[in-house]
Amino acid sequence: MTIITPTKKRTKKLMGLHLYHFSKSNCSMRVRMVLEEKNIPWTSHHLDLRKAENVTEDYFKIHPKGLVPALIHDDVVHIESTEIINYLDEAFPSPHLTPASHEDKKRMSDSMNQATDNHIHVKTYMFAHQIGASMSKTEQELTMYRQLQANTELLEFHAENSSAEGLSENRITTATEILNDCFSNIEKQLGMQNWIASDSFSLADITWIPLYLTLNNAGFPFSDYPNILKWADTITSRPSFHKGITTWMDRF
């Protein structure tokens, strides 16, 4: 569990659940959907990544990478979306979103880790086909980002996206191939059962649905994956999807 001690001094403790998030962030969507699935009251701290509201000294004192989401529960800071939703499922066990069997739990964990490992590839596809130009940083913004950000992968990605040439064809091709491999495997799994990890809806499904949504909006060829389309239609009809994702997408 990734728990950090923030360096930001506050005049009062943040008790209850406080979420620092961005409306269109895949990782933020996961956490919001779990909160709504469990009907847990929470306080929103929305950061607009398009305006670089996360690239501030104050926020880096909360999240050392300046990423969203960051969850504060009774003044304890949790980061990394998959670990946050695992924490929420343990702390608020009704309804339980983890399968019962050891085999299904492992399948869920492996699937969630795969989604996390492919975050940069999802980001690459989305930037290349939809929002790259709008997320380009000025030299001044890049300079500030370098001063705050220690993650080499993120530094290289944003420098490349902000360059005159943009993201390289090699990066885009590699990302597309890897994503197709991932979704081919999920397609096979969904051909055998209704949900990714087991016969019950779980954190694995909540982890992947924002990636589907983001990539589908960016034109990813999901028509090649009929089982995934059926799975996505089922999830997007859930009240937690509407409250945790759709309403936030419409708001900003």
Q: In whole angstroms, how far apart are the ends?
A: 31 Å
In sequence order, what are the helices and strands, one letter per element?
EEHEHEEHHHHHHHHH
- How many individual helices? 11
How many β strands by DSSP?
5
Please estimate the helix content.
40-55%
Q: Which stretches are poorly predicted, pLDDT < 50 over at least 5 residues?
A: none
The strands making up the biggest β-sheet line up spatially as 1-5-4-2-3
**CATH fold-level label of the largest domain:** Glutathione S-transferase Yfyf (Class Pi), Chain A, domain 2
Major β-sheet annotation: 5 strands, mixed
Radius of gyration: 18 Å
Q: Which structural class do the helices and strands define?
A: alpha+beta
Overall spatial form: globular
Count of individual domains: 2
The CATH architecture name of the largest domain reads: Up-down Bundle
Q: Hey, roughly how much beta strand do the residues contain?
A: 5-15%
Output the CATH class name of the largest domain: Mainly Alpha
Q: Mean pLDDT, nearest integer?
A: 91
Features:
single chain, 252 residues, alpha+beta, Glutaredoxin, Glutathione S-transferase Yfyf (Class Pi), Chain A, domain 2, 2 domains, five-stranded mixed β-sheet, globular
What does this structure look like?
The protein has 252 residues and is α+β, with helices and mostly antiparallel strands. It folds into 2 domains: 89 residues, Glutaredoxin; 137 residues, Glutathione S-transferase Yfyf (Class Pi), Chain A, domain 2, CATH 1.20.1050. The protein contains 11 helices and 5 strands, in the order ββαβαββααααααααα. The chain has a 5-stranded mixed sheet with strand order 1-5-4-2-3, covered by helices on one side. Strand 2, helix 1 and strand 3 form a beta-alpha-beta unit. Helix 1 crosses helix 11, helix 4 packs parallel to helix 9 and helix 5 crosses helix 8. The mean pLDDT is 91.
